[in-house]
Design goal:
- The complex is a heterodimer of chains A (about 425) and B (about 400).
- In chain A, about 35% of the residues lie in helices and about 15% in strands.
- With about 425 residues, chain A is of the alpha+beta class.
- In chain A, the strands form three sheets. In chain A, strands 1, 2, 5, 6, 7, 8, 9, 10, 13 and 14 form a ten-stranded mixed sheet that branches.
- In chain A, a hairpin with a 3-residue loop joins strand 13 and strand 14.
- The longest helix of chain A has 20 residues.
- Chain A is globular, with a radius of gyration of 21 Å.
- Chain B is α/β, with parallel strands linked by helices and about 400 residues long.
- Chain B folds into two domains: about 210 residues, Peroxisomal Thiolase, Chain A, domain 1 (3-Layer(aba) Sandwich); about 130 residues, Thiolase/Chalcone synthase (Peroxisomal Thiolase, Chain A, domain 1).
- Chain B is about 35% helix and about 20% strand.
- In chain B, the strands form two sheets. In chain B, strands 1, 2, 4, 5, 6, 8, 9, 10, 11, 12 and 13 form an eleven-stranded mixed sheet that branches. Chain B has a two-stranded parallel sheet with strand order 3-7.
- Chain B is globular.
- The two termini of chain B are about 30 Å apart.
- At the A-B interface, helix 3, helix 4, helix 5, helix 6 and strand 6 of A face helix 5, helix 6, helix 7, helix 8 and strand 5 of B.
- Strand 6 of chain A pairs antiparallel with strand 5 of chain B, so a sheet runs across the interface.
Chain lengths: ~425, ~400
């Protein structure tokens, strides 16, 4: 084990606390047990009626009650729960006094239909309702809570107040790679020496009618509604889209020096971060895979490693025809012949796509994989795609020796982030 | 020990607003004291409407223009101006290494669809099923891509080819401050050489007026400059991007400094009374450790919202002789891009070695004909977030 210096003489960044919630349950223990048992958290949507919808399934987190439902509110509650778990495990700071900044991956906040309904009712309009009527209601001063709830800064503000994080909290969106971007921002802040610790959270509670319909209209979602648990089929030939899901995860990052100085247990190392934006298209990757390839290579290089050092890949693995094809191109280009033998298993086959939270949720699962030396499977892998010859750890978990693992996150808008996690400091 | 922070220059600015596009239009507009207001379209609200842009100049493909909603066009246009000003536009080698941080809210709604649903949903036998049905058939599939916060950055990547990295910060005014703060910190620490940072805002939106007035934060007609208002914001449509660059990187490619970005600070609190003034005082003391105020001005991002603006006014009084200008009185308040807009305006003023005239009769802004060497830019969010930058002339 080496020193605090690390690659390029900058601080090594380690993980000392983790928390996670998905449709499989709350907490690391329940999630890990179910994940390695190959259980699915995908189920029929009951939160709102599914009449007229092409997709009627999701990995919603229904055991965290929010009434009336509000996606941002659910996101905030889940973020609070995972932060408590992570900070509790790390033992850092004291109550309401986290000694570092907050980086939050959160779904874009918006006024939701229940808010609009309340304002419309409050407007007193009795025949047609327009924005002029809603203005009349909002100007009345009776709906101040809607202003606060619908500020983009509101979730981070409330978390910062509750956990006592330091400085101005940052809410980041890089679409479906947001969770990885939040971790990357934390790693960079510690490497710059701005902070000895950072709280990085990803959260997403977006399963509401309009959000589901938006993805549905882009033909991004699986419509294999029966049975729900079999819908998410990453890397299978019959994959037909992702399954929308909710969840949250938190990581306490610390410099290796600070963590060891206070005798903290080190759960893993954030060894490298890579990023490259794609300028090809709003929802599709450049056909040559340039940005995905560059992103993975940047993460490996940032960690001071080579492709030969990578023992496991936690892919973006959404189960859309396009993503899995392009991710294979990226992985096979970077790893060459070895791509066929590096295990690569998609958590999304079980928990669905947790969107803004996915990068953080999957970082926690990758760190648990390193910790337990056991690979969660890709479930629903019944019809292999001959165009994607990868070891997807089909259907059943297995033990493996894993020192260094890669986690990929790709998002609309040409967003690509890869994180490289290691078991121990190099 | 970390190395001393590297010097960072502003080598490009790109701004659009009600005053037009680019440096000259803004300098002229500010020098002449022009205030452009539309009091009709959103009455009783007021708005500083975007000046017409020839979009083809920065977004050459009609297909790209069609894929965007106004907030994205404004931002993509302003980003193009900034890249062009820095001599980076069209340079594939530099663009592939350009790190981007965008401060963004969300995109426009289809207000006709919203209104039709709100009108008919309560009359429906099954309101929730009605909502599903209308959204499934009435939402344009690509509208989602115009709403996602990170799709301004995505469009900048597509239209201008910026691909080094791409991050979008959300969170109103504070997101605008932190975007610049993090971009600066990365260059100072050697994590980046060249960055495009800024944002855009379409103030001409029914849904935003609704949101901000729910908090009691909108000025209703008649118009008044920021310091003369009792309370309330007037939104403006703004796009503002900066190209930040390590001095050594700029010198190696013969890029000229427009100004030096010396420092960016940000804070947050739940704003008990006095917290905003205290935060401004702390940040000011950090920026001016020796109390030197000669050749210095403040360009304020005051919104008009209370109690934030009153606390900033009280703090400004403590600066006595330092001249102050609130740009919200001229171009309106744009939330996320306000801070980068004000850094850009500070850069323009430093380049001309003089401050533009006041737009205030309350006594906060006073005539100033003296020299200008440094500008402190303030950002006090209408609800949360406090920030300050120090922009200096490069001599």
């Amino acid at each position: 084990m080496a020193a605090a210096g690390g690659n390029n003489g900058r601080p090594v960044v380690v993980v000392t606390g983790m928390g996670v919630i998905t449709s499989l349950g709350a907490g690391k223990a329940e999630n890990w047990t179910k994940l390695t048992a190959g259980e699915s958290g995908i189920h029929r949507i009951t939160r709102f009626p599914n009449e007229g919808l092409k997709t009627t399934i999701a990995g919603s987190v229904d055991f965290v009650p929010v009434e009336p439902f509000c996606s941002t509110e659910l996101g905030e509650r889940m973020a609070t729960m995972v932060a408590e778990e992570a900070i509790g495990e790390s033992g850092i700071g004291s109550k309401s006094d986290f000694p570092g900044p907050l980086f939050l991956a959160v779904a874009p906040v918006e006024i939701e239909w229940p808010h609009r309904d309340v304002l419309a009712a409050g407007s007193g309009a009795n025949d047609t309702v327009g924005y002029g009527d809603l203005w009349r209601a909002s100007a009345s001063g009776r709906f101040r809570a809607i202003h606060e709830r619908c500020q983009f800064a509101s979730v981070a503000e409330h978390l910062a107040e509750r956990f006592g994080t330091k400085g101005s909290p940052i809410s980041v969106s890089t679409a479906c790679s947001s969770g990885a971007s939040a971790i990357q921002l934390g790693v960079e802040a510690i490497r710059r020496g701005e902070a000895d610790a950072a709280l990085c959270i990803g959260t997403d509670g977006s399963v509401n009618a309009e959000s589901l319909i938006r993805f549905s209209l882009l033909s991004a979602l699986s419509t294999a509604n029966d049975p729900p648990q079999a819908a998410a089929k990453p890397f299978s030939k019959n994959r037909d889209g992702f399954v929308m899901a909710e969840g949250a995860a938190a990581l306490v990052l610390e410099s290796y020096a600070a963590a060891t100085a206070r005798g903290a247990k080190i759960l893993g190392v954030l060894a490298g971060c890579g990023e490259m934006a794609d300028s090809f298209h709003r929802t599709r990757s450049s056909p040559d895979g340039k940005a995905i390839i560059g992103c993975i290579r940047n993460a490996i290089a940032d960690a001071g490693l080579t492709p030969d050092d990578i023992d496991y890949i936690n892919p973006h693995g959404t189960g859309t025809p396009e993503n899995d094809k392009m991710e294979y191109l990226g992985v096979s280009s970077v790893f060459g012949e070895r791509a066929r033998s590096i295990p690569i298993s998609s958590n999304k086959s079980m928990v669905g796509h947790t969107l803004s939270a996915a990068g953080t949720v999957e970082a926690v699962f990758t760190l648990l994989t390193l910790q337990h030396q056991r690979l969660p499977p890709t479930i629903n892998y019944k019809v292999p795609d001959p165009a994607i010859p990868l070891d997807v750890v089909p259907n059943t978990a297995r033990d493996a020796k894993v020192r260094h693992a890669l986690s990929n996150s790709f998002g609309f808008g040409g967003q690509n982030v890869s994180l490289l996690m290691s078991r121990e400091p190099a | 020990m970390a190395d001393a922070p590297r010097e960072v220059w502003i080598t490009g600015i790109g701004i659009v607003s009600c005053l037009g596009e680019g440096d000259e239009a803004h300098w002229q507009g500010f020098a002449e004291g022009r205030i452009k207001i539309d009091a009709e379209r959103f009455a009783p609200y007021l708005v500083h409407p975007l000046a017409p842009l020839d979009l083809d100049k920065q977004i050459p493909k009609k297909g790209d223009q069609r894929q965007m909603e106004p907030w994205q066009r404004i931002g993509t246009y302003a980003a193009g101006l900034a890249l062009a000003g820095a001599g980076v536009k069209g340079n594939a080698e530099l663009l592939a290494r350009t790190d981007m941080i965008v401060a963004a809210g969300g995109g426009e709604r289809d207000v006709a669809v919203d209104a039709a649903i709100l009108t008919n949903k309560p009359k429906s036998a099954n309101p929730e099923a009605f909502l599903n049905e209308r959204l499934m058939s009435d939402l344009r599939p690509t509208l989602f891509l115009a709403q996602l916060s990170n799709l301004l950055a995505g469009n900048i990547s597509i239209v201008h080819g910026v691909t080094g990295s791409s991050r979008t910060f959300m969170g109103e005014e504070a997101a605008g401050v932190d975007a610049v703060r993090v971009a600066l910190a990365r260059i100072e620490a050697g994590q980046s050489e060249l960055a495009l940072v800024g944002g855009s805002h379409n103030g001409e939106r029914e849904d935003l007026l609704l949101l901000y007035d729910a908090g009691g934060h909108m000025l209703h007609a008649p118009f008044q400059p920021v310091w003369e208002r009792r309370s309330g914001m007037v939104l403006g449509s703004l796009g503002a991007f900066l190209v930040l660059e390590a001095r050594g990187h700029a010198e190696a490619r013969n890029a000229k400094p427009l100004a030096r970005l010396a420092r960016v600070l940000s804070e947050r609190s739940a704003r008990p009374p006095g917290a905003v003034s205290a935060a401004l005082t702390r940040m000011w003391q950090t920026l001016t450790p020796h109390g030197a105020r000669a050749g210095m001005a403040v360009i304020s991002g005051a919104t008009g919202a209370q109690p934030a603006t009153n606390e900033e006014r009280a703090w400004l009084k403590s600066l006595a002789e330092v001249p102050v200008r609130a740009t919200g009185s001229r171009v309106g308040h744009g939330l996320e891009p306000q801070f980068s807009m004000n850094i850009a305006l500070a850069t323009l003023a430093l380049g001309r070695e003089k401050l533009f005239p006041p737009a205030d009769s309350s006594g906060v802004e006073r005539e100033y004909e003296g020299p200008l060497e440094r500008v402190a830019v303030t950002a006090v969010g209408h609800w949360r977030g406090e920030g300050m930058a120090l922009v200096e002339a490069v001599t």
